[in-house]
Amino acid sequence: MASASSFTKYRSWSTVSDDPNDVGRIYTPETPAQKKLKRTFSTWAFSLVILSLSVMFLVGLMVGYFLKESHEDESSFGKRRDKIDTHMLHSVHENIMYFISNDNVRKISRDLKLLKDARQTEYVKKELQTYGLDRVEVQEYDVVVTYPDPARPNELVVINSSGRVLKNVTLGKSKLTNKVEEIIKDGRGDVTRLSPNEVEGELVYGDYGRNMDLVRKNQSVSLQGKVLMIRQGEVSIKEKIRNGITFGVIGILIQNTEEEKMTDITDCLDTSQQYPFPVQMLSRNISEQLLMYYSTLNRNVSVRLKSNYVQITQSVKNVVASITGDLERDRFILIGASRSKLQVGTSYLLELARSFKDMQRGNGWTPWRSVKFYSWDHDGISDLGFSQYLKMQTMSTQSSAVAYIDLDLAQISNGSHWLHLAGSSVFSELVSSVVKEVPDPNNDNLVLENTWDGLLHNIKTETKIQQFGVPVFHASVSQTNNLTQTSDDDHHHMYSLAAARVASLVTLRLLDEELIPFNITFFTSNVYNAIMKTVLLIKESSSKILSTDIILELATELKNTGKTFSEYIPQLLKSKDGLAVRRINDAIMRLQRILSMPNKYRSHYSLLQESNTEGLSSSIKNLLPLATVTNDYSQIQCLLKSIGQVLHEAIFCLQSI
């Protein structure tokens, strides 16, 4: 019998037989040949491991590649991928300027004058497509516009206190009603004649219709339910109407001090906007007669004003073409011109688009930023196309538009030719540089710098795009009503060419310079000067009541911060931070928006009013006399608080870079 020590030698862990008589299962040893190795790692698992390692290796290669590319992109941000250096870029810009041809412009102008409406739109579209721009399309909108009815003239009746009619005037046709009549005759929209809008009330004279004028008048005579008569000037007609709405008047008569001929008020207003009461502009002659009744009858005069309007549903078509930028393609310069009767701006718009694309095709030049060429629809009365674009493209305009170049070059004048350069204050240094390169229209041996008056004028009528804080540049040329003589026509086109060349170089600098060429030091100094004028006005009238220490301190800090920002830019560009250029441009655009864009949370106007050289002081100047009389300085205090908020925001914008 086997001993216990030898028993383990024959122990087996193989499957036990079901046969109870099988004693060999314990005592029969397993030979080496009988042993079968168990597979612990299958072929499938091995393949999966190899595949996983390969995928990880490839992912690692891709991550490394993209990190390297990202690093290279950051370090090379600011280096043009079209391989055009600074010297070559200057030559490219000069070549584009000289590509602009008067012969092409004249041909386009002649062609457009022979076409009407839809055919003009199609002509402009085909021309832009021929040039081979990146994208060409027609943007169409349906707009309902209100105009005076040329078939039913407005009426004005003057009544004394006893109800007797003193004078009954049928207001004659104007340039506007003649244009409306032309629109209706040509069938350019669906016409709906509105019911007459008739109001009758006591006549009250409100001077210029400023807020201070109406407050003073309202202290002696309630303006609620009255018909207000006011003079032109001092503030915009739109502001006069807003003030009238605030005081509850039921109609406004505006004394036209500039022309004898009666014109309807919609010559001066956005015709797409509805007003709650009739507004009528009167000729100087009718105004003087009305004021005579007002004074001789001891201001006890009533008027009945009957206004007739039509609503026209029009189709507005804007043609847009673009060249996509290379490095900052989401940012764009907007160049626009209206398809109006003169057609000069549209002709140069097409010529600029052709010149830009020819240079891109021939030299491989691609602008740093994008550029959009817009041919605005214009019904001969108002800029419907431009207005509709701003309504539909508000977000992209606010966030991405660097500047707007207005190419409506012609201005009617009976005098000699002249070149007028106007724009937002940030363009001052840029324009001063550009005029050194543009030939003088009278002498090819001179440049514009020698004959230009050296002033970048304020834009007389605030362009709607400025409401979004977008700076505007406008070059215009005087144009006589009749260009029949060849010599006069040639002379005019030489001035128009000079204006177009200035606009093209300004556009190209905005497109191609890595830093948006706006002088921040000059910009913030302008704000400081506007604040200083405001502070001096307040101190002269009510230094003990109103404190200006805070806004003066903030204005000084903003001025110093602007100077420091400009000095810091070269150091930032020398760093290895590839996105430094982008961050600086972001700050420049944001600052422009903060200081120039009206904001309902701050005030109803901007700190830098583009159309007013007096800046903030003009607003304070209007409010102070009223506050002195009423001893109520709450409006001025509210304004000063708003100014402080804007200055805080502007300082933070520059410091955050």
Question: How is this fold's topology laid out?
Answer:
Layout: H1 4-7, H2 24-27, H3 43-76, H4 86-99, H5 102-113, H6 118-131, E1 135-148, E2 155-159, E3 165-170, H7 175-185, E4 190-193, E5 197-205, H8 211-220, E6 227-231, H9 237-246, E7 251-255, E8 279-282, H10 284-296, E9 302-307, E10 309-323, E11 328-338, H11 344-363, E12 369-376, H12 384-392, H13 394-400, E13 401-406, E14 410-412, E15 419-423, H14 428-434, H15 448-451, E16 472-479, H16 486-512, H17 520-542, H18 549-574, H19 580-596, H20 616-630, H21 634-655
Parallel strand pairs: 5-6, 6-7, 7-8, 11-12, 11-13, 13-16, 14-16
Antiparallel strand pairs: 1-10, 2-3, 2-9, 4-10, 5-9, 10-12, 15-16
Helix pairs in contact: 4-11, 4-16, 5-11, 6-11, 8-20, 17-18, 17-20, 18-21, 19-21
Briefly summarize what is shown.
46% of the residues lie in helices and 17% in strands. It is α/β, with parallel strands linked by helices and 657 residues long. It has four domains: 47-76; 86-143 and 314-512, Aminopeptidase (3-Layer(aba) Sandwich), CATH 3.40.630; 150-307, Glucose Oxidase, domain 1, CATH 3.50.30.30; 520-655, Transcription Elongation Factor S-II, Chain A (Up-down Bundle), CATH 1.20.930.40.
